[in-house]
């Protein structure tokens, strides 16, 4: 993959963020999350709306795209109005892919998305939603070098596509995920999700005998995802380096992203 400096000088990519529009979300946040457990605007049908705008702003700032920053910093109301124009039917859930280019031009690709219990959009500690599907979670056989294209989400995703192919994941509809790994053997993230594992923490102000949910730190090279930020803000998890060697065949985990919310997974090391 080209370096951040070269590609940002003559950009052929866009910064992106993918989120869920769900008409049931305002009801869920109103009844199951108080003002401190869900980011504003709490009653929007756009999942983690402010976090998605923040993510795009941070990417534009990293790549020094001033025109994109001007577009994204107009305010949340303007950002939501921009998204509203793309919704075909406000009574159904949708998957939105927001893309912003170097010149500050934004576009939204809208597709139908899977029906699900909207409670699963909240962090697991806040609900007892139904989970009928367990995702299979594989570990990539090769490594990826961290860069601005792994820290920030862009259309330059060849490394992630290749990891999915190596894992035998051929369709975005599959309930399977592959964990990408940096050259030091540290888990960075999933190809389309943030992973969480149950681990014992040593040397911190946490009971060493009690396992807690952990997620890889950004220093391992992964993406600063929106659902990851939400999980950390609510104390669902803490950051800890997780290596490929730490993975246990058959262990249960959580996965999250801006469209599916939080889903259960199981690690598969042998096939």
TrEMBL record:
Superkingdom: Eukaryota
Lyase among keywords: yes
InterPro entries reported in the protein's UniProt record: Aminotrans_IV, Aminotransferase-like, BCAT-like_C, BCAT-like_N
Protein name (Swiss-Prot/TrEMBL): Aminodeoxychorismate lyase
Keyword annotations: Lyase
GO molecular-function term, one example from the UniProt record: lyase activity
Signal peptide: none
């Amino acid at each position: 993959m080209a370096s951040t400096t070269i590609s940002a000088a003559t950009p052929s990519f866009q910064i992106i963020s993918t989120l869920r529009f769900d008409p049931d979300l305002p009801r869920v946040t109103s009844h199951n999350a108080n003002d401190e457990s869900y980011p504003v605007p709490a009653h929007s049908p756009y999942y983690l709306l402010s976090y998605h705008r923040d993510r795009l702003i941070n990417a534009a700032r990293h790549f020094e795209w001033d025109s994109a920053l001007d577009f994204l910093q107009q305010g949340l109301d303007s950002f939501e109005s921009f998204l509203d124009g793309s919704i075909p039917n406000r009574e159904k859930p949708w998957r939105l892919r927001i893309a912003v280019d170097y010149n500050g031009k934004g576009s939204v690709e809208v597709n139908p998305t899977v029906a699900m219990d909207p409670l699963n959009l909240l962090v697991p500690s806040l609900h007892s939603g139904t989970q009928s599907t367990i995702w299979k979670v594989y570990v990539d056989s090769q490594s990826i070098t961290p860069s601005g294209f792994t820290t920030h989400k862009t259309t330059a995703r060849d490394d992630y596509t290749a990891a999915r192919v190596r894992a035998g994941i051929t369709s975005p509809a599959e309930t399977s995920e592959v964990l990408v790994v940096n050259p030091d053997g540290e888990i960075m993230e999933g190809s389309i999700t943030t992973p969480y594992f149950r681990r014992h923490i040593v040397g911190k102000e946490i009971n060493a005998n009690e396992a807690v949910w952990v997620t890889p730190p950004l220093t391992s090279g992964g993406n600063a995802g929106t659902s990851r930020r939400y999980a950390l803000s609510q104390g669902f998890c803490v950051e800890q380096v997780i290596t490929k060697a730490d993975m246990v065949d058959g262990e249960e985990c959580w996965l999250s992203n801006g469209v599916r919310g939080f889903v259960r997974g199981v690690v598969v090391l042998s096939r």
